[in-house]
């Protein structure tokens, strides 16, 4: 039985990934600020850790448990687009410090803390794969519509973080792969306010998204490290 680590496991995609790998007979180490959801299948192969990555001691001990022994795959699933009183900005006049703070905290700083803390493990684990969920709207060259300022900027920054970290990782471990991945539009609380305008069949169930992401993970090679990939494994230009 191999091991998979899912960070941000309480969200729709995170839960679906946990369920997918449990069904596939994998050991799943789940990390989240939230308690284990009741909807997840109860299994001895699921190890749920509720922790706050802003607390260094919690993060250090949580990852030490996850990497003893080391997993074959790590997936970071953090993401934030809107809240009860904050919606994606359509115009630059709508920018606010509170929206910037929240978008950067979840979309950039949280995965950055995890990557920083786990990098010593990644340096020495042969063949390890790390996928960080990003967004196609974080591609600067793909941006033709504008809007969604803080979300776009925070995801573009995440792509740069992962690209830069992948270069450092390759110098120490040429067999490792670290990528950002656009999961596609998934039926979740994040996408709920915007689903009505979607083209037919674009919206995926969390289970379908998990299956597609698992297929991307299975096919990853060290030569792809640093890329931004689409849900089908194709490359999205930065």
How would you state the average pLDDT, rounded?
A: 94
Name the structural class: alpha/beta
Q: In percent terms, what proportion of residues is strand? A: 5-15%
Number of helices: 5
Care to count the β-strands?
7
Strand order of the largest sheet: 3-2-1-4-5-6-7
Question: Which of globular, elongated, flat, extended, rod-shaped describes the shape?
Answer: globular
Gyration radius, to the nearest Å?
Answer: 17 Å
Descriptive overview:
The protein has 238 residues and is α/β, with parallel strands linked by helices. It has a single domain (3-229), classed as NAD(P)-binding Rossmann-like Domain (Rossmann fold, 3-Layer(aba) Sandwich). The protein is built from five helices and seven strands, in the order E-H-E-E-H-E-H-E-H-E-H-E. It is globular.
List keywords for this structure.
238 residues, SDR family NAD(P)-dependent oxidoreductase, 37% helix, globular, NAD(P)-bd_dom_sf, alpha/beta, SDR_fam, Fungal_SecMetab_SDRs
Set out the fold topology.
Blueprint: E1 3-7, H1 12-23, E2 27-32, E3 46-50, H2 56-66, E4 73-76, H3 97-124, E5 129-133, H4 149-172, E6 177-181, H5 206-219, E7 228-229
Parallel strand pairs: 1-2, 1-4, 2-3, 4-5, 5-6, 6-7
Helix pairs in contact: 1-5, 3-4
């Amino acid at each position: 039985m191999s091991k998979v680590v899912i960070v941000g496991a309480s969200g729709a995609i995170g839960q679906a990934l946990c369920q997918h790998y449990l069904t596939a007979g994998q050991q799943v180490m789940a990390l989240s600020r939230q308690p284990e959801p009741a909807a997840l299948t109860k299994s001895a192969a699921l190890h749920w850790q509720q922790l706050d990555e802003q607390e260094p001691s919690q993060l250090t001990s949580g990852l030490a448990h996850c990497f003893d022994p080391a997993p074959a795959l790590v997936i970071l699933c953090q993401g934030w687009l809107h809240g009860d009183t904050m919606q994606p900005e359509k115009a630059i006049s709508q920018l606010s410090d509170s929206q910037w703070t929240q978008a950067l905290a979840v979309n950039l700083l949280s995965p950055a803390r995890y990557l920083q803390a786990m990098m010593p493990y990644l340096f020495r684990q042969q063949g390890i794969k790390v996928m960080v969920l990003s967004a196609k709207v974080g591609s600067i060259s793909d941006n033709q519509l504008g809007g969604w300022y803080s979300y776009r900027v925070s995801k573009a920054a995440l792509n740069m973080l992962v690209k830069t970290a992948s270069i450092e990782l390759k110098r120490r471990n040429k067999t490792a792969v670290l990528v950002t991945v656009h999961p596609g539009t998934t039926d979740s609380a994040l996408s709920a306010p915007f689903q009505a305008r979607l083209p037919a069949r674009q919206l995926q169930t969390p289970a379908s998204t998990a299956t597609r992401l698992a297929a991307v993970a299975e096919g990853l090679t060290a030569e792809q490290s640093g890329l931004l990939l689409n849900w089908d494994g194709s490359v999205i230009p930065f």
